[in-house]
Specification:
This protein has six helices and 14 strands. The protein is of the alpha/beta class and 214 residues long. The strands form two sheets. It has a ten-stranded mixed beta sheet with strand order 4-3-2-1-5-6-7-14-9-12. It has a four-stranded antiparallel beta sheet with strand order 8-13-10-11, with no helix packed on it. The protein starts with a strand and ends with a strand.
């Protein structure tokens, strides 16, 4: 099941997210992500969080559509996005695409990436999407579609990631050990094929894909 989570981070032109949200089996809004769902004209299955960022008009609108709200106290141990990920897991999602999870505050961006680690370790496909940069959490293999000149950085999220390989890139890797304290995989470049391959034997990687905008 494919789940799309709308967070309350940075968005570009709303129209660019249309195809992704339309292909979702379920949409979950993390608090203020509901404001963007309203702009997109989509109805989420759930709105979750402390609800301090959703506008009154949007809250009333979705309540009128009988959207389920799951409200948590503002003083809590988990971020709204973390709660949304846990809900997606509970609902049985095996592919989770997060929108609006990058940008704005750096600490929020890092927290949003980190809180997907547990889901990736469970075998779920995790992707943070934006038109400018897409971040994949990888525990085994990723076939990365793109164009020649696309910038791709690969970094270990676990302390170590072993057996890392990158094929179809300007700087190929094979059987490398990556460490979180040594970001040697920054700024690789996709070659002329339609895709590159990134994989590893153990650990978890964050793959940052920056499309080559001509």
């Amino acid at each position: 099941m494919k789940c799309v989570i709308l967070a309350n981070g940075e968005y570009e032109e709303i129209e660019v997210y249309h195809d992704i949200v339309q292909e979702a089996d379920i949409i979950i809004c993390a608090d203020g992500g509901a404001n963007y769902a309203r702009q997109m004209g989509v109805t989420p299955g759930y709105i979750i969080g402390d609800l301090d960022s959703i506008s009154a008009e949007v809250k009333e609108y979705f309540a009128g559509l009988n959207v389920e709200y799951q409200k948590y106290p503002r003083q809590k141990d988990f971020t709204d996005l973390h709660l949304a990920l846990a809900l997606a897991d509970k609902l049985g999602a095996n592919e989770i695409i997060l929108i609006g999870s990058l940008g704005k505050r750096l600490d929020h961006t890092l927290a949003n990436i980190y809180c997907g680690i547990e889901m990736a370790q469970k075998g779920k496909r995790i992707m943070h999407y934006s038109p400018s940069c897409t971040v994949y959490l990888v525990t085994d293999y990723l076939r990365l579609s793109g164009e020649a000149g696309d910038l791709v950085s690969v970094m270990a999220l676990s302390d170590k990631a072993s057996g890392v390989y990158e094929r179809g890139f300007e700087y190929p890797l094979e059987g490398v050990v990556m460490e979180s304290c040594n970001p040697l995989g920054v700024s690789n470049v996709l070659l002329g094929g339609d895709y590159g391959e990134i994989g590893l034997k153990e650990g978890i990687l964050a793959v940052f894909h920056y499309p080559n905008k001509k």
